[in-house]
Amino acid sequence: MELSDAQEDLTELLISEEEIRARLAELAREIERDYAGDDVLLVGVLKGAVMVMADLSRELRIPVTMDWMAVSSYGSGTASSGVVRILKDLDADLTGRRVLIVEDIIDSGLTLSWLLANLNSRGPASVEICTLLRKPDAARVSIDVKYVGFEIPNKFVVGYGLDYDERYRNLRGIGVLAPKVYEH
Asked: What is the pTM of this model?
C-alpha cells in the first residue's frame, strides 16, 4: 500500500521507503562488523517489527537465526499502558547466545525495558537492541540502544509495520497519523 492511498488519514510523510531501505543497509553493515564470526539470534517483537526484521535480515551478509516474541502493552490505544504480558514466547534457548532484539519503534521504553530484563534473565552472552525508530522526547526510562535507524519527533506514526488499531501496517513508508483518525 502506498502512502498516497492513505493520504487523507496522514498529515505528512516522515520517512520514505527509499530512506528506510538505505538506512537498514547501513545498520546491516554496522551489525556485520560488530558480530563478525558470531552466531547471532535476531529476536523480532511481533507484530510491528515484522517489516524491519524481514528487510534487515535479508540485508545482513552474516549467518543469523531468527525467533519471535509477542508482548502486549498497548491494546487498541495510542499510549503504552506500562503493563506487559507475553503473548508468544521465544522457542530458542538463549543460554550463551548473542541476542539482537529487532524493534520497529521505541517510544516510552517501558515495554522494551521489561523485555530486556526478561531476556537477560535467560543467560545470554549479550543482548543488544536495533530499532528502526526512536522517539527521544517520549522516553520514560533510559535504555541503551546500540543501533538506531532514525530519531523522530513525538508524533503518532504509522506504516512499515506500525499500526493504529491494526491498520496502516502495510504502508511502504512512515507517515504521521492525523489526530482526527484516533481522537474520537
From this structure: 0.90
